[in-house]
Write a structure and sequence with these properties.
heterodimer, A: mainly alpha, 80% helix
Chain lengths: 409, 161
Amino acid sequence: MKRLFAVALGVLTAIGGFVDIGDLVTNAQVGARFGLSLAWVVLVGVLGICVFAEMSGRVAAVSGRAVFDLVRERLGPRMGLVNLVGSMAVTLLTFVAEIGGVALSLELVSSVNEVLLVPFIAFLVWAVLWRARFSVMENVLGLLGLALIVYVVALWKLGPDWSHLTQQWLTVDKPGDETWLTWSYYAVALFGAALTPYEVFFFSSGGIEEKWGPKDIATMRTNVFIGFPLGGLLSLAIAGCAATALGPLDITVDSLGQVGLPVAVALGKIGLAVALVGFVAATFGAACETGLSVGYSIAQYFGWQWGKYVRPNLAARFHLVLVLSTLLAVGVLMTTVDPILVTEASVVFSAVALPLTYFPILVVANDRDYMGEHVNGRLANGLGTFYLVVIVVAAVAAVPLMVLTGMGS
Amino acid sequence: LSVVDFGYDDAVVKRLAGGLLLLTLLSATACRPSAPDQHGWQSSAEQAVTDMVSEVATSRLTVQQQLRGRFVGRYAVVVLTYSEEAAGKASDSVSTLQPPPSARPSYEGLTSLLSDATDAVAGARIAVAAGDDQASREAVADLSKALARLRTLADRLRAAR
């Protein structure tokens, strides 16, 4: 019974923790502009994050080592450092976007300018990273993130033309006034939003923190293969709501307030209040995960003590990285840069940075010296290779598409 | 006569010439006000009108829902404030350009329509922030009028592409 509860809790937190500011904004933008014609990208992205997370989780459980520990060993210190810098730049950008996302969510409730809220939110994030227990942080924020299920209810209540939505989805029916170039740009952005590198750093490092062993692989797989796809359903529901309530009115999403409008239309005050809880939990949870991911990755690369289960005085450099990255995020957001713009950039650059960590993990998951009997099987290798191609194509196309479309405008 | 006769290396001369060309190009494109050609103007005007349609439609939906009591706290005011800022940016993105000669006859009509739409969004924000239902209803009517005019213009711009 206790084990069943642990599995259920893991699945629920995986669902609730799946959506972050990138998913919220990108899915609403895409839904409002393209209907569900890009829904297949969410499916490809969700299966991709399942493949990547399962491999890195299995590697962590079997070898007891996290992503950047292995990246340095497999690629050598120099290439490993290039890899670390690229991946950390994107993760820091995501960290900035998530803290900005919390500020925007709280601004919607309080009407206090988001810039004024940023220092308090950053302090709270740091306090959670410093003091809160790993399991409490993960479970509480993950469960609160389940509030975003309100989008599924809102979609049902909005009563869309289901046959039209299905037709858009199945026939990749792009609206006539949009170009294929812009459509491709949003396909890459949506893929980057679903397959963010920090999710894997956090997932595998969390596995080490929670002392996973080979016996935990089954539980880990249950969380990944049930929790992540159900989390992906929330992304589709957000896109569906935007396609139904905003698209027909020619509303293009450029603020977080617009993302909540379909819920207000469908469910009124209570629904909107639940959605706001979901916004805060999803962005705050992701801020904690990205913050930790920065500390985890740098500490793993340099071989420092790391983790929330290690006493802070024994992992001083790890905690210093957490403090510095939080201060950096505050500094960036205090310049009054638009957090939505940072979010848009972060999902695109996530796509650019993905191969940096995906490839070494795929190599290690194939190495019998590390993995023993848990080495990649035929299915894992087939999917792994397919996604390597997809990830490389997305990474190569991302920046040219961003430039050519003026960030999708 | 070769440049080498003056004691200069070919590569240095090429670099200097390249630098000068780049400087000339930069100063030509960085002039204020920015003066796009017909294609650039058309594209900026279309983008500004599309953005404005989105902001006016967002504002109208927000005020309508506010009148039905469907928001918590100051949600509606925050959404309208963001729409007002974005509408101002859309308006400025065209009004600060130097229109090409062929676009001058339509320039005034376009900028005044964008300005009217921005005013309508600001009016909606003021009405909702003041909690004035009558003014909010009037704001919905103003926004609907602005939206209809903007949509007509958007169609015309698209047709002229």
